[in-house]
Amino acid sequence: MSSPDVHELTLSPITAHSFNGDRTKLAVCPNDTNVHIYNTSSNNWSIEATLKDHDKVVTGIDFAPNSNRIVTCSQDRNAYVWTQENGVWKPALVLLRINRAATYVRWSPNEDKFAVASGARAISVCYFDEDNDWWGSKHIKKPIRSTVLSVDWHPNNVLLASGSADMKARVFSAFIKGVDKKPAPTVWGDKLPFNTLCGEFQSNRGGWVHSVAFSPSGDVLAFAGHDSSINIAYPSADGNPTVVTVVTPSLPYLSLIWANDRQIVAAGHDCAPVLFETSDNQDWHLTGSLDENKKKTSISTSVLSRFKTMDSRGSSDNDTDLNTIHQNTILQVRPYSGSPDQVAQFSTAGVDGKIVIWDFDPSRVAKDLSSLRV
Amino acid sequence: MAFRRIDIDQYDEDIYTEEEILADAESGRSIDEINSVVDARATDVRNLLTRGNNSDALTKSLEDPPYGRNLESAKAKNIKTVVDVLNQFRANDIPTAIKGLNLDQQDVLMKYLYAALSKPEQFNSGMILNWHEKLTEVAGPGSIVRVMTDKRTVF
């Protein structure tokens, strides 16, 4: 497989994508009410099933790697859990009890709960209710003041980070009695009843928080905001967390993941994934772009020369391709292979309808980019 | 379709208002205090300019900008202080002046450029656009995005 591995699936934006555990299937929403399941075991990806029960745009998809269930959520304020029976995907409705669109969904690490973010200023933490035989939910509401745009689970299956349009990233307890056992104390606290606010962080430059991610250990939280910066928050017992802000000259990032505990990959409106690094966990910096695709840019792009070619050849230079693999905003970055603390490959999905799988070799990346640095 | 014209947010008791967001951005200092700080800085900057120390005058003028609500006069005065400094630079000196600023100062300068551009009757937009072009080359579109997201506005 060549790297990066580019798959042009649709012409419409890919609002959400998720691979299954062994990466032989891919669930994708092409900005409409359907979810397409692709068979990705051969190099030629083909649609093998379509999930059609939503009646507004699907905003979130998550494939549970071990239990092979898919959860989807949509602007129709519903979420479904899909299970495959005899080759057919069967939906089960989830009682979200929200009155605005659902925006984002993620399975917890143990796959016994999932969190649905929504415009109703709430996060529905959903769990299977054995007595009633359906998926019920509990709401995290306070102190969220606006739409929740993303969530991320802590590896301990209890803590949940959220990023919302009130410009704050928060860490909550999503402890469900009967589902979870009492978790071991972490840096985020030791007493964790449901809806405990364990941390609240803000970049003082404002901007919606588009994406949040716990570090592989779960001890650090990174978030990306619409202020074109990423922030890394280190909690502390005395209530004075350290927040490191990395201000960048590029357009805002919409999604970020930890590749390992010292490297973060972020992507967004600049159409290329970029790498942030730290050597000492105090000083973070933007290392550079991971998109090595260097299209031959013609040097003669001056207005004068453009008019000259128009004059001599009667045509203008119609090359409008961007110098990156993705030709439009990248909406989502997700780990593809490797372990959470050592991501070896990651996938990106963009407004250009492409899914791209990138190799990530931390040592090689650092070397290549250091030679590029001026 | 009449129902679509109803402002449903007015029925929301817990609505997140612009007022609340702006209150968050306030420094907590009194208006008089901020006014006197702005006046003192204007004097300092003028002294630096008369001594011909343009680059120090620029960094001084970008220090501690007045943020928050109900500060129209302080904000207007501070914009004038900054633009007076910008006026002193020759076009060729602008890139060097910008390189002497740190990232935060560059972001503040970008805010003041947009503030000045919003009052074309008062300030020379041609000169401001010249600064804007040079600043964007260094600070990138990210700096422009931050002018829009930052609730600590300068005008």
UniProtKB/TrEMBL annotation, chain A:
The keyword Repeat applies. One of its GO terms (cellular component) is Arp2/3 protein complex. WD repeats lie at residues 51-82. One of its GO terms (molecular function) is actin filament binding. Keywords: Actin-binding, Cytoplasm, Cytoskeleton, Repeat, WD repeat. InterPro entries: ARPC1 (IPR017383), WD40/YVTN_repeat-like_dom_sf (IPR015943), WD40_repeat_dom_sf (IPR036322), WD40_rpt (IPR001680). GO terms for biological process: Arp2/3 complex-mediated actin nucleation. Pfam families: WD40. Its main location: cytoplasm. It is found in: Cytoplasm, Cytoskeleton, Actin patch. Coiled coil: none annotated. Functions as component of the Arp2/3 complex which is involved in regulation of actin polymerization and together with an activating nucleation-promoting factor (NPF) mediates the formation of branched actin networks. Belongs to the WD repeat ARPC1 family. This is Actin-related protein 2/3 complex subunit. It comes from Umbelopsis ramanniana AG.
From TrEMBL, chain B:
One of its GO terms (biological process) is regulation of actin filament polymerization. It is found in: Cytoplasm, Cytoskeleton. Pfam families: P16-Arc. Keywords: Cytoplasm, Cytoskeleton. Its main location: cytoplasm. The keyword Protease does not apply. It comes from the Eukaryota. The keyword rRNA-binding does not apply. InterPro entries: ARPC5 (IPR006789), ARPC5_sf (IPR036743). Belongs to the ARPC5 family. Functions as a component of the Arp2/3 complex which is involved in regulation of actin polymerization and together with an activating nucleation-promoting factor (NPF) mediates the formation of branched actin networks. This is Actin-related protein 2/3 complex subunit 5. It comes from Umbelopsis ramanniana AG. The lineage of its organism: Eukaryota, Fungi, Fungi incertae sedis, Mucoromycota, Mucoromycotina.
